[in-house]
Specification:
The complex is a heterodimer of chains A (about 270) and B (about 220).
Chain A: H1 3-12, H2 18-30, H3 34-51, H4 56-66, H5 70-111, H6 113-150, E1 166-169, E2 181-183, E3 191-197, E4 207-214, E5 217-229, E6 234-241, E7 248-256, E8 264-270
Parallel strand pairs in A: 1-3, 2-8
Antiparallel strand pairs in A: 3-6, 4-5, 4-7, 5-6, 7-8
Helix pairs in contact in A: 1-3, 5-6
Chain B: H1 3-20, H2 32-42, H3 46-66, H4 72-86, H5 98-119, H6 126-133, H7 139-155, H8 158-169, H9 172-186, H10 190-214
Classes of the chains: A alpha+beta (about 270), B mainly alpha (about 220).
């Protein structure tokens, strides 16, 4: 509290000298803006009284020096009432708002029980599905990161990969034809080496983006894989994780980075 | 009659009595000669004198209002009348400004007001006042007042009623932060918020008293 407010507080409590009080009262008469300051000090004083935060000395002066007219007493009582009213109405408003929401929901559900059951079931299965779907996506994300790194390594020497399963796939392999490469589900090891033969007309392209798809949906993708020379023609070499290869038809799409409009499609079947 | 019923009746009776029977009778009337003398004293220029007269009257109304006098207007008029009537007996000096005379008379009138108050049958004794203060907890009386306040709030503009309710919704240490946030939300200073609340509070109080009289 600043000195001015403190002095006004003391004035209202009748705690100033006659000269000091007269100075304040003449200012009240002469300066209309000063009244706001006095009223503010008065309101703070009244609130302090209502809240019981006045010192013993102030409380005594409040009774004997301030509450000297019925008007002041009525003002005190009005402020106390208004504070109580505002506080209680604020609480009841919050209770009413909270109650009205749940009451509306309960009323709606009680009128349409079938809807309530369906909503509950959908919420339950939705939650379960989301849990597994998000978990699966998270697993795929980790696999993607891991195999992106693996497939950036140099595959020109295949010596270190002789111990793992491998398949060679030519473009245009279709399910149901003899040319479709078939692999058994759950080959040994964590990875399978896939060698994609490149058509002659793609011999001059050095890098390809490769997409692994199942039933048209992309599962993994690897960018800018290098083409390697083999005995007959060039080929792409990459590792795929065995864990994601479930039974079904898979497609691999190789897109020359310099010729994206001409993707080369491969297929293999997991049995 | 039990004590609470008596207290309630006393309070309601006070509201009614106060309006119909001012505590201090102000019977003086101002003659044209006295008024002209007063205006001439305030200023040689008639228009300036009239303006000065109104300013002094407003100042006196403020004085009596802050002193806690319900009849602040009539007490201000009584002060001016007495000064005007005594003016011819003054030995006016240029050292003393008119405000000094008006203030001196106003102080005396305030003391008379307090003396009348003590003689008034409706004077609320401090002991009774202390008990009445606790009356806000009384169920029936509280409900009556709250019901009236509901009606009075409904007569205000929504922003005004929300402002007052938000202003008084918190107490003790919480109120300072709540009021600062309220002032921020209204894009005004705390001082201006206080003035706005005070204005609305005045309207509400008059409305509440009027409502309690009707019940």
């Amino acid at each position: 509290m600043d000195k001015g407010s403190e002095k006004l507080r003391r004035y209202l409590l009748g705690d100033l000298s006659v000269e000091e009080a007269e100075e304040i009262e003449q200012t009240i008469i002469l300066d209309e803006k000063f009244e706001a300051e006095v009223l503010e000090a008065e309101d703070i004083l009244i609130e302090d009284h209502v809240e019981g935060t006045l010192s013993a000395d102030e409380a005594l002066k409040f009774q004997e020096g301030y509450l000297i007219t019925p008007e002041r007493y009525q003002n005190l009582e009005f402020v106390a009432t208004l504070r109580r009213y505002s506080s209680e109405r604020a609480i009841s408003d919050r209770v009413h708002e909270a109650g009205s929401f749940w009451e509306r929901l309960r009323s709606f559900l009680s009128n349409v029980p079938a809807v309530a059951y369906v909503i509950c079931l959908l919420l339950f299965f939705g939650t379960v599905a989301a849990y597994f779907w998000l978990g699966r996506d998270e697993g795929l994300s980790k696999i993607q990161t891991k195999y992106s790194a693996l497939n950036r390594q140099d595959f020109s020497d295949l010596g270190p990969y002789r111990s793992i399963s491998s398949i060679s796939v030519l473009p245009g392999s279709l399910r149901g034809t003899d040319s479709t490469v078939k692999i058994s589900q759950g080959p040994s090891g964590d990875s399978i080496l896939v060698r994609l033969g490149l058509p002659v007309e793609f011999t001059n392209y050095a890098h390809f983006d490769v997409r692994l798809k199942r039933e048209g949906k992309k599962i993994l993708s690897f960018d800018a894989l290098s083409a390697y020379k083999s005995e007959s023609s060039n080929e792409l070499r990459l590792l795929l994780p065995v864990a994601i290869l479930e039974k079904g038809l898979y497609q691999l799409e190789a897109i020359p980075t310099d010729r994206p409009e001409s993707p080369i499609t491969y297929a293999f079947d997991v049995e | 009659m039990d004590l609470k019923k008596f207290e309630k009746q006393a309070t309601l009776c006070y509201y009614s009595f106060r309006i119909q029977n001012p505590i201090m009778k102000t019977t003086t009337t101002l003659s044209k000669a006295d008024l002209d003398r007063l205006l001439g004293w305030l200023s040689a220029d008639q228009e300036a004198a009239g303006k000065k007269y109104l300013e002094i009257r407003e100042g006196l109304v403020r004085y009596f209002r802050i002193k806690g006098c319900y009849e602040s207007q009539s007490l201000a008029d009584e002060t001016i009348n007495r000064v005007a009537m005594k003016l011819k007996t003054f030995q006016l000096t240029s050292e003393l400004k008119p405000i000094t005379y008006f203030y001196g008379f106003a102080k005396n009138i305030f003391f008379e007001y307090l003396a009348e108050l003590k003689r008034s049958p409706m004077q609320i004794e401090p002991e009774l006042a202390g008990r009445l203060e606790g009356q806000t907890d009384d169920g029936e009386d509280k409900e009556t007042r709250f019901h009236c306040l509901d009606d009075c709030m409904a007569k205000l503009r929504t922003d005004e009623s929300e402002m007052v309710r938000a202003y008084y919704a918190k107490d003790r240490s919480e109120k300072f932060e709540a009021r600062r946030r309220l002032a921020d939300s209204l894009n005004i200073s705390i001082g201006n918020l206080h003035i706005r609340v005070h204005r609305v509070k005045k309207i509400l109080r008059e409305c509440l008293e009027s409502c309690l009289e009707r019940i």
